[in-house]
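Sequence in, structure out. Go.
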Amino acid sequence: MPQDNLTLKLQRELERRHGRAVSQSAVEGFLRSKGMLGDTPSTEPTQPIQPTQPTQEIQQPQQPQQQFPWSTPEEEREVKGGALNALGVGLWSALDTAAFGLPGLAVEEEEFLDFEDPMAKYAGALGGFVGFVAGAPMKLGVKAVQLAAKPFIQKTGRESLETVLRSMKRTGKKGGLDKSTIKKLLVDTELL
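Output:
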């Protein structure tokens, strides 16, 4: 008998209900009695499903029951794409990328979001880009490159960005610029 996902789900459900492993022949007999194997249903009375003793090959670990009242089992949950799902995927991707993937370690996001929806793929790509640029990866990357480049810049006889900005600040104070103007100038210079 071919093993498709629906048959395997039926077998697992029967095992869950009986508390023991159910043989393939019992599942096949049940499907035949209901006329679901393509055969004509037999007119002879079928025997009830007899659970067999579990073996190492058939027995699978039980999944823990979900603890949240709003979540449903996977068989009943219908994932729907849409604008709200795409927005969620975009925001999740931005947050996850900005925090180096740490939120993804704490939450199983595939349970709540459909990442395969075409609109969600675009939103996720955009969210990942925004998270990288606006989040910690880009900021820490820039700082790391500045620290790594500082000794090489000094060996060439040039001044580092830090030194130039400090001297600009001193020159601005001596020239009579107020603190807000100096701060705005330094922020604008750092962004270049």
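Check: The chain has a mean pLDDT of 77. The longest helix spans residues 136-155.
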